[in-house]
Amino acid sequence: MTSLERVVAALNHTEPDHVPVYPILSGISRRLIGASYKDWSLDADICAEAFIKTAEDFDIDCIVTLIDLSVEADAWGQEIVYPENEAARPNYANCVIKDIEDYAKIKKVDYRKSKRMMMHIDVCKKLVEAKGKEMPIVAFLFGPLGVLSMLRNQQDMYMDMYDDIDAVFAAAKEINETLKEYAAALCDTGVAAVMHDTLYASGSIMSKEMWMATEGKLMPELSEVVRQKNCLNMIHNCGKDIYFDVQIETIKPAAISFLYPPDDCKDYAECKEKYGKNISLIGCVTPANAVIGTDEEWDKQCKDQIDAMAKGGGFMLATGCEYPANASFDRARRMIDIAKTYGKYNKG
Predict the structure, then answer these.
(1) How would you classify the pairing of strands 80-81 and 63-64?
(2) Distance (Å, rounded) from C-alpha 69 to C-alpha 56?
(3) Residues in the chain with pLDDT < 70?
(4) Residue at 318 is within a domain
(5) Nearest by Cα to 313 from 262, 268, 271, 276
(6) Closest Cα to residue 4, out of 103, 131, 97, 90?
């Protein structure tokens, strides 16, 4: 089977030849072509070349265009810092939103004036052209509340929600209007899906009620834009106690990429039983274990995920978040080998 056929089978809850696999090789991909982290983050040709190299060198089944969580914030003029060996991030000493009154300044903007958004669109175009017939290309999109936190900082935004949730929601709604047009443009590149990062929809950050009162009210419109473009909606959320139920209700995703079991399941096996008949599950190997622990512990975690969630299809083996950007590639290769051997269906 091709990677595309394998992933389609998994999304349709049938068993392909083996479990589809993709350690999320994002920033680390720069090392395959000898690029700096900054150049990889800003240059579409370099970024696309690196992603393509991961597909060719590692035989992964999918490319997810996770660059960093600051891509969209560029559209509102947020200053970005580009460390030598880490993902780009906002300069939190110079946030666009400095106090609660500044939320009122956040309005819908033209994504076409954002160099980083346009760079990401260009990356998607290049990946679709080079690999789109062989494997799914999935565009990564930070949700409206996440983007807002890049303009303020997570802790202060969270406290602001207690002081004036209406002000925070109004700004997130303006951001969502931009993201809707941006998502449509990403879909127009020919990607198979848009993966929404809904970081805040997890119990480790905020209550389910608070998320539903803010981002949860915006995601139906954003995900509908993607559906109207005949693309799939997917979710990525690496928080603890992720809210599967309300995200399925508001986004209606085809798949969820996650790290920890959802808030209403005691383990991954229960997650598969409760949600795996209708939603494809992606994950959930701990990325940090690529640099700590033993090879045997890494292998066991990969096999445990397969044991818990692979039966009947509807599962893709992946890291629960980005593979560490400065780790060895060795454990990524081990994961892929395990998916092809231990994760083989119809072994008899």
Answers:
(1) unpaired
(2) 25
(3) 347-348
(4) no
(5) 276
(6) 131
Q: What is the pTM of this model?
A: 0.96
Is the separation of the CB atoms in 252 and 223 below 8 Å? yes
What pLDDT was estimated at residue 108? 98
Q: Of all residues in the chain, what percent are helix, strand and coil, respectively (each to 5)?
A: 50, 10, 35
Sheet containing 255-258: order of strands: 63-64, 137-142, 193-197, 232-237, 255-258, 280-285, 315-319
CA atoms within 13 A on the CB side of 95: 20
Per the DSSP assignment, residues forming a β-bridge with 344 are 18
Give the C-alpha separation, 41 to 84, whole Å.
Answer: 11
CA angle 272, 278, 280 (to 5 degrees): 65
Residue with tokens 């622990």: 293
Closest CA to 119 of 198, 225, 46: 46
Q: Using the structure block, give the residue that is written with the tokens 């005691």.
A: 266
Sign of CA dihedral 22, 26, 28, 32: positive
In a domain? residue 215: yes
- Give the chain's domain count: 1
Contact assessment for residue 217 and residue 169, using Cβ atoms and an 8 Å cutoff: yes
CA–CA separation, 311 and 314 (whole Å)? 8
Q: What is the pLDDT of residue 346?
A: 81
Which CA distances in Å does 345 have to 272, 304, 319? Answer: 17, 15, 21
The pLDDT value recorded for residue 348 is: 52
Q: What pLDDT, on the 0 to 100 scale, is given for residue 347?
A: 61
Residue with tokens 């051997």: 341
The CATH number of whichever domain residue 98 belongs to comes to 3.20.20.210
